[in-house]
Amino acid sequence: MRAPQGESREGEQLAYRVVIGSIMHETNSFSPVGTTFASFHTGRDDLVNGIEVIEDHRGTFTGLGGFIDVADAAGWDLIGTVSGHATPSGNVPAAAYDELKRRLIDRVGRAGDVDGVLLYLHGAMLAENAPDAEGDLCAAVREVVGGDVPIVVELDLHGNITEAMCRVVNAVYVYRTNPHIDAYERGIEAARCLQQMLDGALARPAVYISKPPMIPPTINMRTAEGPMRDLIERGIDWEAHPGIVTTAVFGGFAYADFDQVGAAMVVTATDPALGQRCADSLGRAAWEMREEFLKSIPTPEEALDQALAIISAGAERPVV
Q1: pLDDT for 62-73, tens place per residue?
Q2: Which of 20, 82, 200, 264 is disulfide-compatible with 161, CB 3.0–4.6 A?
Q3: Strand, helix or coil at 53?
Q4: CA-CA distance, 283 to 298, in Å (whole number)?
Q5: Are 116 and 149 in contact (CB under 8 A)?
Q6: Neighbouring C-beta atoms of residue 205, cutoff 10 Å
Q7: Is the dihedral of CA 147, 279, 194, 53 positive or negative?
């Protein structure tokens, strides 16, 4: 890590140099739709590199947009690496994953000495040669920047989070809404956490995890009510304890088929014992309410009958 911001080196005021990047894919191992490197060139969110990462996402309500807004306000020297998002589909081929990883790591390495790293990832990307793709990416970034540079990650609550990833990052932020409408806000919080670390206002945290042996069905991970809402609120309550930086409740993504699939309770904390105690407490709570995640859903025929009944009763809005 370089000298703190504000200290001069030969009369020059130094800004924090922070790397940002994003590679996102929610992998459905059972999908008949294959994933290729071209899948990350969708026309809507093309794979971009370098300064384009910043230019294309400035002013957007995305995780990257949140990172960039904090960086702009703080006067950071922001360094774009790569950004590529692909529509959910099958396992990512090894060659495609290797090229995405190469682009990210190459840009991180070319950045030279940096003060921090912000990554906007999904959490459920599964590559043929890296089932825990996000853990592999974070470990590769850590190897390049070294152990003293803080890495903060923002993830989707459908991520399948592993101990391997938690060991190599300093903070994990997660969407708290499903449908997802808070990516920008969580990006803001993640970047502010990094800023506090760089300013010395926050002791360097670590990440703790509890993985209850359960794979919740995606159909019942709404956050307005139900078990996900309950777990998220329990986590927020823990954040009142000094030493707990943030809590992250992951329902997992059942269709990314590997041995670490499923729910995870992840805690960023400056107090190791408290951080693990919090994660374990949330893990026990998730296990105790496991049956609440089960939900009966109508057959297509039953759903049509229900919709027709609602329409017949005088529904004024579309029935979905």
Answers
A1: 999 999 999 999
A2: 264
A3: helix
A4: 30
A5: yes
A6: 26
A7: positive
**Is-above-0.90 flag for pTM?**
yes
Name the E strands within the chain: 8-9, 12-13, 17-24, 48-49, 77-85, 116-121, 151-155, 171-174, 206-210, 244-250, 264-269
pLDDT at 316: 78
Query: Among residues 188, 125, 120, which one has the least CA distance to residue 161?
Result: 125
8-312: what CATH class? Answer: alpha beta
Stretch (H or E) spanning 298: none
Task: For the chain, give every domain's residue range.
Answer: 8-312
Q: 199 with 244: CB under 8 angstroms?
A: no
Sign of CA dihedral 54, 62, 6, 206: negative
Instruction: Give 3's DSSP letter.
Output: P
Handedness of CA 214, 220, 226, 232 (dihedral sign): positive
Distance CA(158)–CA(269), nearest Å, equals: 22
Cα gap 20→80, rounded to integer Å: 5
d(CA 62, CA 314): 38
Query: Which of 141-150, 219-228, 263-272, 294-303 shows the lowest mean pLDDT across its residues?
Result: 294-303
DSSP character for 11?
T
Residue of 171, 174, 193, 196 lying closest to 183 (CA atoms): 174
Specify the pairing of strand 206-210 against strand 264-269: antiparallel
CA distance 293 to 31: 23
Q: Residue 4: which pLDDT band, with cuts at 50, 70 and 90?
A: low
The CA distance from 247 to 1, in Å, is 27
**pLDDT tens-digit readout, 252-295:** 999 999 999 999 999 999 999 999 999 999 999 999 999 999 98
| 173-176-181 Cα angle (round to 5) | 105
